[in-house]
Structures are given as structure tokens and as C-alpha cells.
Amino acid sequence: MSERFTGSFTQQEPIPEAGIEAAVAVMRHGRLHRYNTVDGEIAEAALLEEEFAAYTGARFCLGLASGGAAMACALRACGVKPGDPVLSNAFTLAPVPGAIASMGARPVFVEVTEDLTIDFAHLEAQAKATGAKVLLLSHMRGHVCDMEALVSLCDRLGLKVIEDCAHTMGAAWKGVASGRHGAVGCYSTQTYKHMNSGEGGLLVTDDEELAARAVLLSGSYMLFARHRAAPGAEVFERLKLDIPNVSSRMDNLRAAILRPQIGMLEDRRARWRVLYQGMEAGLAGVAGVQLIARPQAEDYVGSSFQFLLPGWEAARVVRFLAGAAARGVELKWFGAADPQGFTSRYSHWRYAAPEVLPQTDRVLAGLIDMRLPLTFAPGDVAQIARIIGEEVAVAAAARELSPVAAPTAD
Fold first, then answer.
1. How many Cβ atoms sit within 10 Å of the Cβ of residue 108?
2. How far apart are CA 166 and CA 268, in angstroms?
């Protein structure tokens, strides 16, 4: 078992030449602020919003500084106030409860299933127990629940749905784009997401009042007429003196980098699917490994891969992670006692005072996660799967477990 993977789990593809050229043009004229335009010029940010709205089929779109900023803006636009309970699935990443806490609201976590999606029964129980009016639904790691059933349940419970689509840009449920089932869809363009501008976020909605509130919140300086994917001036006139400026706009430089990438999303989804299915095939039948079921109705973007080691005690998982890391395979574990880099779980967010969720704890105790960057080739994922299978067997066979330090997740 001397085989070792030498690739990088964090190396992304280069920015497309069209994006580089557009970004250089913005730097040459110096008008990076979205409202700094000359006569006859349309800002890159305004064009990005128009084009992304068309891609998703949304009426309105707003570019923001990050995915977290998009979620916080959506929550404010939906009327969330300090102290309000906001529901969210317990399996998510720190920016989701962070967006809720950023306005003094209270995250209320909902159990996750073995399919890594929100538990409908517990969602109903938490909604009734807390009186929450908003669900910030995280499509964590690209796993989409039955959205028709979710929307029906939330309509019955009086819950407004905000979708966190940081991991599902380009995905769909029964042909409907991710982010288009709820009242608002929020996306991230951080480097490890499906379009890359380093940092950035996008918000879509069909609700003209929510859209106008979001534009004003983002910091429009009453220049809302310069938005092309926004409601008419009459909607802003009703609201403009009542909405604070929170200054979370996207700039023209990042928008210029992103615009050419919209047209690449379908190709990227197809290429990610090849990598994901290659990993599935490589791990199918490995004793001790449980794969995550993908519903036929879900058109997913497989930019990361997850599997379960059900029933494994922590020491055995740590041994497996160390063995894989020694052979160049960087894995993340959602069952670790302490947060590791980007990887944390609901019990680590003490500011939210989370209640214990036994079902989620059981699932996360054996949940392993890895990135699948498009710089990988099918042969790379086949090699990674072989190494994982061998190290699972080694760890599963170990009888005397000595303490092993958990590897640091990136």
C-alpha cells in the first residue's frame, strides 16, 4: 500500500481569459465601485445581476460582498429582528448560523437525516415549539431535500424559506433551479464554490418588495435606478426612508470576473458529475463505507463528496484520517471534538446555545467529506478511492487503538 496521491484538494481552475480581460479593463479605468459609471456605461455589477437572474429564471437579482452577506441581507429583508428564532438544519457551516446571529436573531437547529438533508418531522416540531417564521435552509454540501414536500410543509407552518445555495449553484430539483423554491435564494462565489471571484454573493427573488429591501440594505445610496434586475422606482419610493444602509455591495471587479463564468456552469456541473460518480464507483462495496443516496429528482453539482463510517468510534476514525493523510488524501471529519479550519458543526457554535440533537450527532460522528476540484481528472478520483478503501480496511482491522492526533482540515 505504497500508492500516494500527489494532487491538491484546494487548487482551482484558472479564471477564464474573458474574465481576466474584463477585470483588467475595470482596473485600467478605475471605476470599481458599482455606482461609479460614466455616461452611457452599464456597471459590470448591474450586468452580472441581469445575466444571473436570466440564468436562474428569477425576476430580480442582487450582487453582494459574500454568501454570508447575501444570507444576512435576505434575513433582514424578510423582517427578521433581534431575538427572533430562525430555523436552520444542524448540518451546515459556520456562516449560516453566523448570518442569523449577525442581526441578534437566534439560530434554532433542526436534525439531519442520513441523506444529509433536513428532518421534516423535527422541522415541524421546532417550528411549533419556537414560533419561528423563517427557515434558512442550507443545501449543505449540495444535498437537496424533496423541495416540493419542504415548501408544502413550510406553507402549512407559516414559514418563509430562504435557501442557502452556496453548494448548489447550477443544481435543480425536478428541473427547478436551486434557489427558486423559497422566497429568496442566496449563493456564494467564494473560491471553493461553483463560480470563483475569491469572495462574493448573489441573491435572487421574485418578490419585488423583498428585492427592493435587499437593494436598499446593500447600500444603494438612492441610486437604485442603476440596477437592471430590480423592481421599478415606485417600489423603492415606498421603502427608501425606512431601510438602513448596511453596505454589503459587490464591486465591478468581482462582477467582471464572474460574468463569463455563468455560461460555464452547465459544463462544470457535467464535469463534476463525472468526478463524483467516479468516486461513487470506486467506493461502492467497500466494507464499512456507507454512501449517500442521491434522489433521481435531484440534478446535483458534485463539487464535494461525502460518505459515512457508521458506528465507528472516534479513535478508529482518527486512525483512518491519519492513514489517508499520510498518503496525500485530505479528508474532513464532522465528528471531531473541536473545529478544524473550515470544518465545524452545530455543537461548536456556543453563541447559539444549541440543544443536543442525538440523531445529528450520530450522523456527523461518522461523516467524512472531501473536495473534488475540477483540477482533478477521473484517474485522480479512482486513485483516491483506492487509497480510501485500503485505509478503511486498515483502520477497521485495527484491534489495539493507540491515540493518534487528528489531521488539521483545511
1. 23
2. 15
Domain(s) of CATH 3.90.1150.10: residues in the chain: 265-397
Average pLDDT over residues 66-78: 98
Q: What is the mean pLDDT of residues 330-350?
A: 94
| Model confidence pLDDT, tens digit, residues 213-245 | 999 999 999 999 999 999 999 999 999 999 999
Q: Report how far residue 331's alpha carbon sits from residue 407's, in angstroms, rounded to the nearest whole number.
A: 9
Overall average pLDDT of the 322-350 stretch: 95
pLDDT in tens, 276-297: 999 999 999 999 999 999 999 9
Looking at residues 248-262, what average pLDDT do you find? 98
Cell 471587479 locates to 253
How far, CA to CA in Å, does 376 sit from each of 9, 271, 371? 8, 10, 10
What is 265-397's CATH superfamily? Aspartate Aminotransferase, domain 1 (3.90.1150.10)
Q: How many CB atoms lie within 10 A of CB 338?
A: 7
pLDDT exceeds 80 at position 406: no
Amino acid 232: pLDDT: 97
Q: Which three three-digit cell numbers place residue 169?
A: 449553484
pTM score, two decimals?
Answer: 0.95
Tell me which residue of 309, 320, 305, 323 sits closest to 380, measured CA to CA: 305
Using only C-alpha atoms, what is the Rg of the chain?
A: 22
CA dist., res. 76 & res. 99, Å (int): 10
Task: Supply 208's cell numbers.
Answer: 419585488
Query: What is the arrangement of strands in the sheet containing 290-291, beginning at the earlier edge strand?
Result: 290-291, 304-308, 367-371, 332-333
- 182: which DSSP letter? S
Q: How far apart are CA 259 and CA 263, in angstroms?
A: 8
Q: Which residue ranges does the chain devote to CATH 3.40.640.10?
A: 17-262
Q: Where are the alpha helices (DSSP H) in 240-333?
A: 252-262, 265-283, 314-326
CATH of segment(s) 17-262: 3.40.640.10
Please tell me the distance from the alpha carbon of residue 177 to that of residue 184, in angstroms, as a whole number: 12
For position 1, what pLDDT does the model report? 62
3-state secondary structure of 369: strand
